[in-house]
Amino acid sequence: MQMTVTTPALLFPAISLFMLAFTNRFLSLAARIRTLHDQYRQQPDQTILAQIDNLRKRVHMIRHMQGFGVMSMLACIFSMICIFQEFELAGQILFGVSLLFLILSMLYSFLEIRISLNALDILLKDMEQR
Questions:
Q1: Residue 85 carries which DSSP code?
Q2: How many alpha carbons lie under 13 Å from residue 29 in its C-beta half-sphere?
Q3: Contact 101/71 with Cβ under 8 angstroms?
Q4: Tell me: the pLDDT tens digits for 65-115?
Q5: CA-based nearest residue to 54, from 66, 62, 43
Q6: pTM, entire model
Q7: What is the mean pLDDT of residues 2-21?
Q8: C-alpha angle with apex 6: 102 to 83, nearest 5 degrees?
Q9: Of 30, 61, 64, 129, which has the fewest beta carbons less than 10 angstroms from its beta carbon?
Q10: Where does residue 2 fall: left (phi above 0), alpha (psi -120 to 50 degrees), or beta otherwise?
Q11: 79, 94 Cβ separation under 8 angstroms
């Protein structure tokens, strides 16, 4: 398979958008954790603790999503360098590695979304009990 420098470059916009989305998720979770922390200090409640535990898991997952996204971007850059230097096989392998990291990042994103549904269930159960 003949690959040019532009092939790995096609991933840059996608990876950048994913990284922006992951960062936005992280920032919104951080703000929510701070709010819940303040609420818990004023009035301790098991529901708040359950939400914070759920958010802790999600924050760790976002860290993995971002890490794999960064690794994907780096592998993509090194792939382009190898192709530019006419190390075709190394460039193709690095491009494959870049795709693998991107897939891992997306899998973590999918799992994080599933966990976020658990957080909504916690709130809904609390509403049903009251």
A1: T
A2: 24
A3: yes
A4: 999 999 999 999 999 999 999 999 999 999 999 999 999 999 999 999 988
A5: 62
A6: 0.83
A7: 86
A8: 90
A9: 129
A10: beta
A11: yes
